[in-house]
Amino acid sequence: MNRIVTMVLRNLHIIPGAWIKLCRYAKHTDEYPEEEKYRHIQYILKRAVQSGNIELMVTGTENIPTEESFLLYANHQGMFDVLAVAATCDRPLGAILKKELKDIPFLKQVIACTKSFAMDREDVRQSLTVIQSVIKEVNSGRNYLIFPEGTRSKSSNDMLEFHNGSFRCATKSKCAVVPVALVDCYKVLDQKGSKPVTVQIHYLKPIQYEEYKDLNTKELAALVRGRIEEKIKECV
C-alpha cells in the first residue's frame, strides 16, 4: 500500500480535529503563539512518521542553538526532507520552499503558520525578495531551513552543487549556520509500498559568524557542503 495512504488510514480518527485546528492557526496565525502552532505541526508530523513505518535516526540535536537565531542548511532528497527536519528540530522554524508547494493542502497551512516562503528560482527579483525577507526574520529572532541545492537530488544520497546565493541569508544576518545531513530520506516517498524505512537526520556542529565572517558566499557554500558530504559518506 502507498505510504501516504497508510498514514491517512491509520490516522482517520484524529485527522478532522487536527486539520480544523491547523486551518484555524493558519487563518489567524498572528493570534496564536509561535510555540503553540509549531507543537501542533510537530504532533501531526510525528503521528505521520509513526503510522508510516518510518524510523527517524537523529543525532546532534545538541548542536541546535538554544538561544540565538540560526539557519539550517540541508541537502535535499525529496518532499519528506522538510517534514523530517520539522519533526526533529524542537525550536520553531520556517523554511524556504519551491513555489510549486505553496498551494498543496497541509503544506499551505504550515507555510502560513511558520512564516515560510515560497521561492521562484526562475524569477531573480522574487528570489532576492525572499532572501531579504528571511534575513529580516532571522534578525528578528526567527529560524529557517534552507535547501541550497535548490532542487532535490535524484541520485539517492549524492548531492548536487549548492547555490551560493542562498548563503546570503547567513552572511547578511550573521547568524549561526547549522549544516544538516539527510540520509535515505528519498526512500520514504520514492520507494513503492509502505515497508519500514529508516531515515537519518544529523545536525552537525554549528558554524558561528566568527568562523565564516571572512568567507564569501561561494566559500561558505563549499564549507557547508563539504561537512554534509563528509557526514553522509560516514553513514552510507
Descriptive notes:
This protein has 236 residues and is an alpha/beta fold. The chain has ten helices and seven strands. It has a seven-stranded mixed sheet with strand order 1-7-6-2-5-3-4, sandwiched between helices. Strand 3, helix 5 (107-114) and strand 4 (117-119) form a beta-alpha-beta unit. Helix 2 packs antiparallel against helix 3 (34-51), helix 2 packs across helix 5 and helix 3 (34-51) packs across helix 4 (80-88). The protein is globular, with a radius of gyration of 17 Å. The model has no long low-confidence stretch (mean pLDDT 95).
In the CATH hierarchy, the architecture is 3-Layer(aba) Sandwich
Number of helices: 10
Summarize the biggest pleated sheet: 7 strands, mixed
The domain count comes to 1
State the helical fraction: 40-55%
CATH homology-level superfamily = Glycerol-3-phosphate (1)-acyltransferase
Structural class: alpha/beta
User: How confident is the prediction overall: mean pLDDT?
Assistant: 95
Task: Give the topology string: H per helix, E per strand.
Answer: HHHEEHEHEHEHEHEHH
Instruction: Kindly provide the name of the CATH class.
Output: Alpha Beta
**Low-confidence runs of at least 5 consecutive residues:** none
Strand content: 15-25%
Features:
globular, alpha/beta, Glycerol-3-phosphate (1)-acyltransferase, 236 residues
